Structure formats: C-alpha cells, structure tokens
Fold these 4 entries.
Entry 1:
Amino acid sequence: MDFSELKNKSVNDVRELLAQFSSQLRELRFKALSKSLKQTHKLNALRKDIAKIKTFINQK
C-alpha cells in the first residue's frame, strides 16, 4: 500500500483498514507460530502497512 493511496481515503475508511490489517496480522502470527505459514515476508509487509496507516492518521 502506498502513502498516496491513503491520501484519497477518509480517516474513517483508513481506520477500518487499520482494523482489518491488524486482524490479518494476528492471524498470520498464529500461522507462523504453528509453522503453517510459508510466506513469512507477508508479516513484515503487513507491519509496515500498519505503520503507514498509523502515521497517516497521526498527521490528520
């Protein structure tokens, strides 16, 4: 997700996206702990996306 994509959305939409990404991150962490997650790079990408969203919300 690019920062420019976030600029086109409202703060409420971004907060909903943050909640969705947080739940996805939780699910991926559980899969990683149970050794069923093969694509571990998704964890880092999702964490970075969450950080971008939080930065965007703080700037508004």
Entry 2:
Amino acid sequence: MHPEHDNNLTGEKSIDGEPLGRNCRDAAMGGWFDAQMLRLAGTP
C-alpha cells in the first residue's frame, strides 16, 4: 500500500512523522501539501 502515491499527494516543505505510533504529515515554515482522498462507493 502506498497511501501518498495512491492519493496524489503533492506539496513543498512538508515532512512526515510517526508520533505516538501514528503516521502524520506536517507543513511548516511556509510549506503546504494537498491530497485527493478516494472514497468507496456507498460510504459517506
């Protein structure tokens, strides 16, 4: 599974991390990120 690739993640000056065992992404110092999240049919 490649969630960042699968959801078309783009950005600048963003970092990923794993605080408390959970994956996350942060944009700092003028950075940004954007993703197109997919959803399954029939889900809200």
Entry 3:
Amino acid sequence: MARTEYTIDYRSVVHRPRQTEKKATPMAKQATDTANQIVTPVATCAPYHYPRRILLAVAGLSPQILTETLYALAVATAPPFVPTAIRLITTAEGAERARLSLLSDDPGWFARLCRDYQLPPIDFGPHAIQILSDAAGRPLADIRDLADNACVADQITETIRALTSDPSCALHVSLAGGRKTMGYYAGYALSLYGRAQDRLSHVLVTEPFEQSWNFFYPTPYPRVIETRDNKLADSQRAQVTLAEVPFVRLRAGVVPERLLNGGASFGETIAAAQRALEPPEVVIDLDNRRLQAAGESIALAPAALAFYALMARRRHMGLHAARWNSDGLAAQYLHEYQLIVGSACGDYERAETALANGMSADDFDYRRSRANKALTEALGAVLAKPYLIHADGRRPNTRYGLRLQPEAIRFR
C-alpha cells in the first residue's frame, strides 16, 4: 500500500472556535493562578503522631543548642515532641565538642538530660553527627570562603531532602546554632522540601544562661553554674522556650520530581524552583523527542509526544478542543508522528494502518493519559497541572485540549 505523506493544514480539517466561547485567560493571570497552587497546605495531623520523629540541628561551637532544643521539644512543650532520632550537622571542631560534652561518660549531657526527664531511648551517637566537608571531601574546621559556603549549602540541602523523603517521618529542624548561613540554608531547604508534618524552630534561653558554656538545659534539681560574666546562677531556674518559625512549604509546587530523588545542588534546586514560578511555557522539540516545561527537559515516547504535539498545535492555532471523533484528528496525529519518527519507520506504517479508519475513543484516551502521565511523573502533580491535556465540558460531549495560552507554546 502506498503511504501517504501528511502535510496537514489543521484549519482545513477542523472547525474554527465559535465566537461565544470563553476568552483565553491572559498569561499573567495564568502565572498567578499557578503560583497560588504551589504552597502545600499544612495538614492537621500533628508531628508527634508520626512513628519516626527526627530532630535535626545545625551547630557551630555550641553543642548546648541540641540539649536546649531537645528539652524545649520533649519536656517544655505540650503535647511533647519526643524525637526517635537526633541528627547534628556541624564542623569538625563542632563535632568534637559535641562528642566530648554530649556523648562522653562525663559530663555526658545528652544522657543526663534523658535520665533527668525519663525520656525514652533516642537514637543519637557519634554516627549521627554529620561533619561538613569541602569540595575535596576534607572535614571543614570552619566556613572560610565561597567554595566552602557552596559545599555547606549542598550538604545541608541534601540531608533535609533525604530526611523528608520518608512519609512516615516528621522532621523538626532547629536553627539555634551554627553560622547564620547554616541556619539560612537549613531553613530554605526545609521550605523547598518540607511537608505538612515538618517544623522549624529556634530556642530562646533566659539571661544569664544564654551562651553560657556550663548551661545545657534547665535541670529538675538545683545546680549552680558559673555564667559567661563570671556570676553564679541556678540552672533549675532557667527558662528555655521553643520559638516555632513559620515557613512556606513549596515542595509540591516548585520542586520537580527528579530533584525530590536527590542529586541536585542547592543552586540547581533554587534555579528549578525559580523557573517553576515563571509563567508556564512549553517548548516542543520533535527532533529530540522532548518537551521543555517548568525548566525541565522531559522525554516522551513518540506516540505520546505526537499526541501532545497535536493538542499543542491546535491550541497554538486557536482551534477548539478535540474529541476522538473530531474531523481530521487521525490525520493530524499522523502528521506529528511522521515528523518524529519519519515516514520510512515501521512504527509509522503500523500507526498509519491502525488509524486508516480514524482514531477510536480508546486510542484517544490512551494517548492522552500517556502524555499526561509522563508530565506528572516528571514534574509532580501540582507543577504539571498547567501543561496537562484537560477535559472541557460534560459527558458525553467532553472535549480535550491544552489550557496554556497560545503564545506560551513553541515548536522547535
């Protein structure tokens, strides 16, 4: 059978939209609508109900912030958030101070706190202290230059990404210690990756106990210590207050799925999030069988890409949404498929034969769902929404098409 070369004039085989149809939403409003959907709502399920509860602290040379935060969460807060595990991110010197002051037999302030307030077993030891490293993998004694700063950002971001990947875990991040940039990166990473059950906080310690090396938490019995100004004070009278820090949860709306799986630097994650906030635009690259959407390059199988290109071209030309039996739909699909695989390809010949009598409803639904699935898997449900093929109207007269503005669709 001689094969037909499809060079389709879409307007010759489909009807123009009626003048009574609703006007397209401007791109600016579409961008605003997208931005309004990116914030993850805070669920009512309380963090202390989760079976795995992790306290993550960033610290410099003051390991006291860990016991102060643990006391505030597990003792001074009602209902208490008692971690099942603690993780500490710090420098090489900070790690040594934490080992000597918190985990040694004497003074062993972590174990003493747990005994004093009869806390259940908490997984925390030398294995739980993450020492920041430079680009060569050497432990950082301090954050001294821009290269060190970038390494610290990447490591804190990756740790928070990994901890938030467990749906059975509630993460509490403390900003009380370390350099200001460490707290900034921890807070920003939690904003990017945090879920409804995750929290961010700082601890407030009353005078004269704040920044006193001898103070680790308010003891349930009198204990006289020397404060930083060489005065004496009873640690039993100290007050430690948890100050929860609100943050915007952007995870579902601006972080593509591939970044949720790891491997991206802090800078790459921020860049991807920034692109997601821009007005939606899709670039269809038939030669390389990919879409560019929300700053991501998404590979599609030829059949799914051809169907998406068909819908995009109709929208780009201002044509109405389509049904499986719309005039010329099979010919339009074959035109896009031919541009992708070539007319000499066996797959093209089989598609041409299968569609000789038009596209069935099952074929239409299958190709539409495959295209939407590829976008959703690559971007996540919220980020993918502006790019999906949407239903319009009620059954049995439902039509399908893109809701992107025509000027937001480009072919390469």
Entry 4:
Amino acid sequence: MNRLPRMPLAKVLLAVLVAELLAGTALVLWQPPQPVPPLPPVEIFDPLTAEQMRQMRDGVRPRAAEDWSELAEMYLAHGFYPEAEACYRRACELSPEHAERRGDWAFCLSRMGRIEEALAEFQQAIALGHPDAAALRYFAGRDWLRLEQTEAAKRTFLLAADLPAARYELARLDLAEGRGGRAAERLERLQREIPDCLAPHWLRARAERRLGNAREAEEYERRAAAARGRLPTPFDERSERVRQVYHQFGRQGRLEQLRQEIERGRLAEARRELEWLLQQQWSAEAADLLSDVDHAEGRFDQARRRLGEVLDREGPSLHWLWRYGEACEAAGELDEAGRVWLRAVALGPESEAQGLFVKLSQLYESRGDVDEARRFKARFYHAAGVERLDSGQPGAARASLEESLALDAERAATWYYLGQALEALDRTADARRAYGRCLELQAFHGRALDALRRIGP
C-alpha cells in the first residue's frame, strides 16, 4: 500500500505561522464600512448653495463628531430635519459624553415631533452636565404639554423656574386648574421683571377676572394693550443660532460678504459676482445690492431700472418703494420720487417710515409747499413719539408728541398718544385733557373712550 509522503514538521509549523500572520494583517487592515452622511435634495436651492452643501457633506470625516454636528446644524438651518437628525445621531454615537451635541439632537427630535425620543435625550444631556440645563428643561416641559402630561410638565418647569418663560407656563397651568390666586402671584413677579411684556399682563387680567376683580383686570388689560415686548424664551437663542448659520452659508453668506465689499469700495469685483449670481438665479436681494453698485458708480438710471424690476417682481412694499424712490431722486426725477414715497408711507407702519416723512417734508419745502412740509414733519415727530412710548420713555415721548402737535394740532391719534405718555408720567389731569381733545377731533375713538372711562372724569 502506497503512503503519501510526510511533510516535515518544520514546514507545517511555518505554514501555520504564515497563515496566522496573513489573517492578522487582514484583520488589522480591514475596516468596516463607514456611515455616509445623507444628502438631501439640495437642487431646490440656487447652484451656489447646493454646491456648498455637497462640498460640506463630502468633506465630513467619518469618525469626526464635530464634522457631523456642523453638517447637522447646516441641514437644520435649511429645513432638512430628517437629514439633520441622522447627522446629530451619528455625532452623538461618536461622542456619547458630549452634552451639548446631545442637547442639539434632542431639540431636533422635538421639532420633528418625535417627542418621547426627544424627552429621553433632553434628560441624558442634562445628566451629562449641559451648560444650559434650564433651557433644556423648558423645551422638555413644552414637550410634556404636547403629550398632555400636565403634571410632568409642571415638575419640569419647576426645575427651570429661574427662566421667566417657565414661570409663565406654570402660571398658565395654575389658571387652567382654577388656581387664579397662585397664578396672579407668579405673574406679579414677571410683571415687575419685564414690565413692557404683553403676555404676563394679559394672563394676569384673565386671572383677576376669574377672581372677580374687574377693576384690576381692566388695569392689566390696559397695560397689555400698551406693552410691546415679547416674553423671552429659550427658543429665541435657538432661532438666532439657526438664523446665523443660514445667513453665513451658501448664497446668503456670499451676499453678506459682497455687501461688505461694496462698503469697502471694491465695486468691480462685487459687480462681476452679483451679475453672475443673478444669471444663476434672480433674487431681489442680489438685485438690490447691484443697484447699490450702480449708484456708487453714478449709474443712476440703471439703478432705477433695476429697482423698478424688483418692484415688478416682488410687488409694492414700504421698503421697495422707498428704495425705488431714492433711485428716482438720484436720477433727478423728484416728482416720481415724491409720488412713490407717498405710496410707501401708506403701506407701512409709521414707526418704520420716519426717514420717509423727513424726505417728504424736505421735498415739499423745496417746492414751497409749507403746509405739506409741516404736515409730514408733524408725522415724523408723531412716529418718533410713539416709538419712544413703546420703548418705555414717556418723558421723551411727550416731548416728541408735543412737537408734533405744535406743527399739526388736528391729528386725533397724536392727542391720544400724548394722553398715554402723560398718564405714564402720573399727570392724570393733563392726560384727561389730551384724551378729551382726541374725542373732540374723533368722537368715536375707542381707545380714548376706554382711557377716560378708566381714569374717570
């Protein structure tokens, strides 16, 4: 019987050793497939923004948590929530102890309506030592309310009670549960801290009505009507972050850079790029900037035509009519400028048209129309007075409103706001006379009637 030749033992051992070395090398060199960042439908944006999005996505290093987090924030700013959430998730997988990234992920989940997941991640971010735990608790409390879990919401808001917005939510819950007195106590502190904020005054008025205190309710309703401020919330900081990312990226970011170049006098470079951007995709903002270049180079007719196109495409507004009128003025077409500015002041709030009132006053004065010049100057002082009243400066408001009435004493609205300023200065008798004069000019001025009813004859 034939036998196979035996391999020497040394050769067998050598073969085994080589096989082990090859297997070990393969294990060391082989890498599992790395996650690839998602790419949303960027073609919905202009070419420049779309290309920068692709470049940023392609430049993400697979194991760099900061790259995934920055990409997520850019996606979030442009409204791509599912893609942003996937990137935040990967960033947290790569840096599981990073509290701020986890808080960002939780916020994204919350905005997507995945509330249970968001609540879990908010809690984890707080446990990891997030630097703004109160804001996360406020967001979590709002999410508990979305789930109609009022007790959980209340416990969460109590942990964030240093925030005015959290105390306001607690007062709302108190009032909803029939505890008007407790709600009024919480709101009283808020009213002291932020007296120009509408929401606490309005909720306090509701609480006082529930308690049967009609006179107090009317007083807080008056304060609410006069207030112009907003309740500060943690959403403000988040919104500002998103706004900054949006305006620093892509086409928006480039337009901001070009605005700065125009201010530095680099007009030729700015013109070339703005013309290219407009060829790629027309936008009112780019056309407006190019009209600034036209104006700076003395091409006034071209600036006027360009802004006329903006008006045709965007429709009339205080801003665009103002800009078009300025282009007409620069081109020497003063009659057209005046006509356009008269349209503009009819469209926007007077507080935003103060500069136009000055221009119209100067225009009519140059024509020798003294009465119209005085009328628009009076409107300027009226608008300035109302703005100062809204910003909590009744003394300065009174001075501006009295200046307005010295120029035009027949405006009922100016007498009413003068009454408001005088009332804020505790000059009740003078305020009563101002309200009375308002009603002489406009017998059914509702707010003046309410004011006289409130302060008495």
